[in-house]
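Exercise: predict the fold of this chain.
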Amino acid sequence: MFSLENKIALVTGAGSGIGAAIAATYAQAGASVFVADRDDGAGEKVADSISAEGHTAAFLHLDVASEESCEAVARLVLEKHGRLDVLVNNAGIGHVGTMEQTTGADMDRLYQVNLRGVFNVSKAFLASMLQRKAGVIVNMASIAGVLAVRDRLAYSVMKFGVVGLTKCMALDHATAGLRVNCICPGRVETPFVTARLREYPDPERAYKEMASTQLLGRMGKPDEIAAAALYLASDEAAFITGSALMIDGGWSAGK
């Protein structure tokens, strides 16, 4: 079950955290994986680690905020393999602040990466998927794309956009063989989050406060999100499109 044997997959923002976990999980399931990231060192390290375990992975430099970069990567992948079976739009950045604390420049930066970036990469591969009448796109949204989250104005707005983009693409292209879904994680214990926790005067207390929004009383693990991404990419999920899969430890249960 949940095999990606002989599939070609590309994961953006795969140099760390959830993206790295998805890339490794896909490779273990049999896919040839492109680890795409703007950080060459981090991306190469992930690709090398996957290859060292006997799986197939290669690094590609990608800046999702640049149309030119996305188009160049798409050309390279399609010239090499003739297709992309699974695209995971995972790359993203965070921001803390209310509207009062958020500048126009903050909004523009979050838009370029978190929303326009999803559009750019998807657009670069869309024509080839529609021509083949086959393809799966998994977008990384957030609980903040379904519920308002305090002090996360810019981030929430863009993740709401990712959910909307997912549903529109699924609606427009369902009969053309393209499945598009998104994952909405709660708080996940990634290296980025761990580093931010260390900046608090009392990291342990900060962790407990952040984890308390989830009924299970803890943050998620990158591998738990990767498992969902594997399912959505697999043939077992062939009847799923336009969905926003909540993996939030129960955060949204009482909302």
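Check your answer against the key: Residues 167 and 242 are 5 Å apart (CA to CA).
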